[in-house]
Amino acid sequence: MRVLHVMAGADAGGAETMMLDGVLALAEAGVDQRVVTRGEKTRIEAIRAAGVPVDEASFDKIWRFPTQAKITRAIKALNPDVIHYWMGRAGMFAPAAYRERSLGWYGGYYKLSRFRNCAWQAGVTKDIARHIVEQGAPAERVSTLHTFAAIEEAAQVSRAEFNTPADAPVVLALARLHWKKGIDTLLDAVAQLPGVYAWIAGSGPLEDELKQRATALGIDDRVRWLGWRTDRAALLGACDAVAFPSRYEPFGTVTVEAWAAGKPLVVADAAGPAATVTNEVNALLVPKDNVDALRDALKRVLEDAELARNLVTNGKRAYEAGFTKQAFVRAAMALYEKIRGGSPEAH
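RESULT FIELD:
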């Protein structure tokens, strides 16, 4: 099996992380791959370290020719069975000549037209797959290919590194600092939880605004701004609970990362998490933008040891049933084989 992956992508984000994790998992499984992506240094270095060739491209929507030429050369070099376009920006550069072996992957509720040169489609959730079919894609060519938790064993970070008392309750948020992620709601909730520390691992356009909010709430001494991190396993190992208060989340990899790491999860009812977790079984599900509900749920998981243990046990069970690296590789390979079998021009 030969697979070409194409992704524009930002410097960091959930879809970018999934693409990287997916490529690395498939490399471990022995899949012959090549990648065309925007020049984000850390991502490119990780892919090349796994022995996968990378071609850097700008994905400039105005001056399209250089990127289109890079993709065409990569196709000719690898002669892939499948060309996997991650997200809509990449899909817009798919050459029509290779439509039958091209797969468009949706990390959100995008327009089918962005993947017009992809004969096959996949959504990160079943609901996104439904959305694709409703736009007119043939149901037999639409699949679900969800993310997985790439949490490797790692020594937990020292709380002293972040000036946090060893015995303080710590709530971790792994998120871009964007309005969609609801970090302002988390800050408001933590302000009502004396003694609880919040670790915010992420970067983004609202960083200054959110820091000002923490100052106004009088919780600067209990909030730690960690920036964008690549040591998620080490952070998860050191926290007591995970908060995921997103207003908009098509899937939410943080959900399965918390399960994999064995941490109790409190999550807002954005579309992806609401369709993935079972309230009071493997997470506590709270309404979006509801500070009181988020505060009360965090207080419960931090103070009720039996509840926390049950959420962790059931979360681990859900993770092992469908969100491991092995489960992703099986699902991706089955989809790629389906495309190869249904694409005469790929042979």
